[in-house]
C-alpha cells in the first residue's frame, strides 16, 4: 500500500518534470507565435504568451516588407521542394530496386561508391558543382536545386530504399517473374506498392530538407523574385531594425507552417523514419 | 548425337548469354539516373575539387597550379582559418556530448511505459524538426539578444543580463545551446534502442538486488553502446558542417570578432565572397580529412567501449 503510493508520487513528479521541461523547451516557439499577433510596442515588454491586444498587422506588413511579396517566395519554395520530392522518390526508388533485387556487373563496386558518397561532407563537391552550374548558365534558375534530385544524388535515400526492399519477401516478385512479368512491371506493380512506407519517408524528409536548404539556395539564387522563403527571411533580417520584429516573427511563423503541418499529419512516419534509419529531423 | 536439354529461355529463342546481357541492360536502365548523377555531381566534382585545391582559381581566369600553397597558407599564414577551426571544434565537442547526454536521459525517463509517451515524444522531437530553419535562427537571435527572452527571465530574478549574441565569449555557446535544444532525434533513436533490451536482464538484476543506478551502469549503458556510438558519429559529422544558424545569427560575418566563424561559414566567405575557389577547395578537403580522422579514431576506440552481442 505505502509502496504503491510512493510509486504514484514518483510518477507524478516524473510527469511534472517532463512537462516543465517540455514547456521550457518550446516556450520560445510559442512566444514567437504569440508575439507575431501582438502590436510592436508590446513584444519586448511582455514575456507572457497571451496577447492582451490582438492584431494581424504584423502579417500584412511583413508580407510586403521587402518589395516582392512573401507569396512569391512561398510559391518558389513549394515549386523547388515538390520537384525535389518527385525527383528523389522516382530516381532513388529506381536505383534502390536495382541494388536490392537485380544482378548486374560491377554491382558491388557501384554500391560501395554510393556508400562513400553518403559519408562525404558535401563541401568536397561544392565548388566544382557551382562552377558546373555557372558554366551551364544555371545560376539564378531553380535547376541546381532540382535537377540533381532527379539523378538520385541523395545517396542516403537510395540506401534507405535498398534496405527496405531487401526486407520484403521475394515470393511476390518471383511469382510475377514466373508469370512472365518484366522487371519494370515487377518494380511498378509489386515493389513500389510494397515499399510505400520507405517512399513516404523519403518524400517527407526530402520536402523538409529541401525547404530548409538555406546554403544551396543562398549560393544559387541571388535575384529577389527567385528567392525562397528562407532567403526572403534572411533579406528581411538584414534590412530590418528592432522596430519591425513583429512582422519578422510573423513571416518566420509562416515559414514554419509546412514543416509543422507535416509534423502533425505524419508524426508516426517521422518517428519511424528517425528510429529506423537515424535520419535527423 | 549430343543430348539436347531444352531450357525455357531457349524455347523463346534466347541463349543464356543473350539473357545475361539483357539482364545487365535492364539493370543498368534502372541504375541510369543514379549513375549519371554520380558521375556528374559526385565523383566528377570530387576529383575536380581535389585538383582545384592545388590551384589558384577565381572562376573567371583559368586555374593556375600552385602546389601545396593553399594547404601551407591555411595552416601557417591564415589566423582566421585557425580561429574558424578552434570555434568549430569547441562547438562540436561541447554541443554533441551535452546533446546526447540529454537525449539519453530523457529517453530513459520516457522508456518506462509512461502514460502520454507519444505526446512527450512529439514535444521533445519538434525542435529537431524545426531547428535547422532560418526562422528558428531569427528567434534565437532575439531570445539571446540584449532585450531578449533570456534576459527578461533573468530580470525577474534580479540579474542584469548581457547580449549573449553580441559578446565574443558567449556567442558560440548560444549556438551550442541551439544544437543541444535539438536533442529530439537522437532521443528517438535511443528510445528505439532501449525497447530492444530484454526485460529479463532487469528482472534478473533486481532479484540479485541491483539498484537503479547499478542497473543503468551494468545493463542499460553497455547494451546501448552501439547506439551511443551511432548517434555520436552521426551528430559529430553533422555538427562539423553546421552553417545556417551561425550565418543568420552573425549576419553572415561569423562575429563578434570571429567568435562564431564556423568552418563552413569561413569556407563560404573564401569561396563565394572572395572567390578564392582553390583555397576553398583546399579547405573542403581539409574538412574531409579532419572528419575522417576523428571518425577513424572513434571506430578504433569503439572496440574498447562498444559492446556487441554475440
What's the order of the H and E elements of chain B?
A: HHEEHHHHHHHHHHHH
Question: What would CATH call the class of chain B?
Answer: Mainly Alpha
Residue ranges of chain B: pLDDT <50 for 5 or more in a row?
none
Task: Please tally the helical runs of chain B, counting DSSP H or I stretches of 4 or more residues.
Answer: 14
The CATH topology assignment of the domain at 66-239 in chain A is: MetI-like fold
Global geometry of chain A: globular
Mean pLDDT across residues of chain B:
91
CATH architecture of chain B: Orthogonal Bundle
The side-by-side strand order for the widest beta sheet of chain B comes to 1-2
Amount of helix of chain A? over 70%
The count of β-strands of chain A is 0
Number of strands of chain B: 2
Mean pLDDT of chain A: 91
CATH class of the domain at 66-239 in chain A equals Mainly Alpha
Q: What level of helicity do the residues of chain B show?
A: over 70%
Which helices and strands appear, and what pairs or packs with what?
The complex is a heterodimer of chains A (281) and B (310).
Chain A: H1 2-35, H2 40-43, H3 57-63, H4 70-101, H5 107-119, H6 123-135, H7 143-150, H8 155-166, H9 171-178, H10 183-194, H11 196-211, H12 214-220, H13 229-239, H14 245-265, H15 267-277
Chain B: H1 8-12, H2 16-52, E1 55-56, E2 64-65, H3 69-77, H4 79-111, H5 117-130, H6 134-143, H7 149-156, H8 168-181, H9 184-196, H10 199-207, H11 212-240, H12 244-249, H13 263-273, H14 277-305
Antiparallel strand pairs in B: 1-2
Helix pairs in contact in B: 4-8, 4-9, 4-11, 5-9, 9-11, 11-14, 13-14
Provide a descriptive summary of the structure in words.
The complex is a heterodimer of chains A (about 280) and B (about 300). Chain A has about 280 residues and is mostly helical. Chain A has a domain at about 65-240: MetI-like fold (Orthogonal Bundle). Chain A is built from 15 helices and no strands. The radius of gyration of chain A is 24 Å and the shape is globular. The model of chain A has no long low-confidence stretch (mean pLDDT about 90). By secondary structure, chain B is mainly α. Chain B has one domain: MetI-like fold (Orthogonal Bundle). Helices cover about 75% and strands about 0% of the residues of chain B. Chain B has a two-stranded antiparallel sheet with strand order 1-2. In chain B, a hairpin with a 7-residue loop joins strand 1 and strand 2. Chain B is globular and about 70 Å long. Classes of the chains: A mainly alpha (about 280), B mainly alpha (about 300). Chains A and B meet through helix 1, helix 4, helix 5, helix 6 and helix 10 of A and helix 2, helix 4, helix 5, helix 6 and helix 7 of B.
Amino acid at each position: 500500500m505505502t509502496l504503491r503510493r510512493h510509486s504514484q508520487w514518483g510518477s507524478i513528479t516524473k510527469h511534472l518534470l517532463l512537462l516543465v521541461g517540455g514547456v521550457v523547451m518550446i516556450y520560445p516557439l510559442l512566444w514567437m507565435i504569440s508575439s507575431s499577433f501582438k502590436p510592436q510596442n508590446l513584444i519586448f515588454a511582455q514575456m507572457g504568451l497571451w496577447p492582451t491586444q490582438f492584431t494581424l498587422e504584423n502579417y500584412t506588413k511583413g508580407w510586403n516588407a521587402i518589395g516582392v511579396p512573401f507569396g512569391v517566395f512561398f510559391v518558389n519554395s513549394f515549386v523547388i521542394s515538390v520537384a525535389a520530392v518527385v525527383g528523389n522518390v522516382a530516381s532513388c526508388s529506381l536505383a534502390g530496386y536495382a541494388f536490392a533485387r537485380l544482378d548486374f556487373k560491377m554491382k558491388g563496386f557501384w554500391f560501395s561508391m554510393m556508400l562513400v558518397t553518403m559519408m562525404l561532407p558535401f563541401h568536397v563537391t561544392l565548388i566544382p558543382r557551382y562552377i558546373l552550374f555557372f558554366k551551364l548558365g544555371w545560376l539564378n534558375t531553380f535547376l541546381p536545386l532540382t535537377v540533381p534530385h532527379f539523378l538520385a544524388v541523395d545517396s542516403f535515400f537510395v540506401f534507405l530504399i535498398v534496405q527496405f526492399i531487401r526486407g520484403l519477401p521475394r515470393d511476390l516478385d518471383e511469382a510475377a517473374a514466373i508469370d512472365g512479368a518484366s522487371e519494370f512491371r515487377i518494380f511498378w506493380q509489386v515493389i513500389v506498392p510494397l515499399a510505400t512506407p520507405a517512399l513516404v519517408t523519403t518524400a517527407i524528409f526530402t520536402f523538409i530538407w529541401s525547404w530548409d536548404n538555406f546554403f544551396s539556395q543562398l549560393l544559387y539564387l541571388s535575384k529577389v523574385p527567385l528567392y525562397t522563403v528562407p532567403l526572403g527571411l534572411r533579406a528581411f533580417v538584414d534590412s530590418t531594425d528592432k522596430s519591425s520584429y513583429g512582422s519578422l516573427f510573423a513571416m518566420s511563423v509562416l515559414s514554419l507552417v509546412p514543416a509543422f503541418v507535416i509534423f502533425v499529419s505524419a508524426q508516426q512516419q517521422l518517428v519511424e523514419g528517425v528510429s529506423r534509419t537515424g535520419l535527423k529531423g | 548425337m549430343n543430348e539436347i536439354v531444352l531450357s525455357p529461355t531457349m524455347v523463346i529463342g534466347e541463349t543464356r548469354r543473350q539473357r545475361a546481357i539483357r539482364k545487365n541492360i535492364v539493370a543498368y536502365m534502372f541504375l541510369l539516373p543514379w549513375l549519371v548523377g554520380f558521375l556528374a555531381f559526385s565523383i566528377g566534382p570530387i576529383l575536380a575539387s581535389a585538383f582545384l585545391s592545388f590551384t589558384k582559381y577565381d572562376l573567371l581566369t583559368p586555374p593556375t597550379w600552385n602546389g601545396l600553397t593553399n594547404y601551407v597558407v591555411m595552416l601557417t599564414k591564415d589566423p582566421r582559418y585557425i580561429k574558424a577551426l578552434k570555434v568549430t571544434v569547441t562547438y562540436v565537442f561541447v554541443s554533441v556530448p551535452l546533446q546526447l547526454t540529454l537525449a539519453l536521459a530523457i529517453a530513459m525517463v520516457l522508456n518506462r511505459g509512461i502514460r502520454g509517451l507519444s505526446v512527450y515524444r512529439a514535444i521533445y522531437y519538434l525542435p529537431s524538426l524545426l531547428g535547422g530553419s532560418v526562422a528558428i535562427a531569427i528567434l534565437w537571435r532575439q531570445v539571446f539578444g540584449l532585450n531578449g527572452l533570456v534576459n527578461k527571465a533573468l530580470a525577474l530574478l534580479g540579474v542584469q543580463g548581457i547580449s549573449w549574441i553580441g559578446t565574443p565569449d558567449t556567442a558560440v555557446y548560444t549556438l551550442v545551446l541551439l544544437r543541444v535544444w535539438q536533442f529530439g532525434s537522437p532521443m528517438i533513436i535511443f528510445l528505439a534502442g532501449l525497447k530492444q533490451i530484454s526485460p529479463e536482464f532487469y528482472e534478473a538484476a533486481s532479484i540479485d538486488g541491483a539498484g537503479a543506478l547499478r542497473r543503468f551502469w551494468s545493463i542499460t549503458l553497455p547494451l546501448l553502446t552501439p547506439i551511443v556510438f551511432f548517434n555520436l558519429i552521426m551528430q559529430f559529422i553533422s555538427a562539423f558542417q553546421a552553417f545556417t544558424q551561425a550565418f543568420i545569427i552573425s549576419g553572415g560575418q561569423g562575429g563578434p570578432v570571429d567568435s562564431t566563424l564556423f568552418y563552413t561559414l569561413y569556407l563560404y566567405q573564401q569561396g563565394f565572397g572572395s572567390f578564392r575557389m582553390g583555397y576553398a577547395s583546399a579547405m573542403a578537403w581539409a574538412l574531409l580529412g579532419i572528419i575522417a580522422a576523428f571518425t577513424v579514431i572513434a571506430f578504433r576506440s569503439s572496440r574498447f567501449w562498444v559492446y556487441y552481442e554475440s
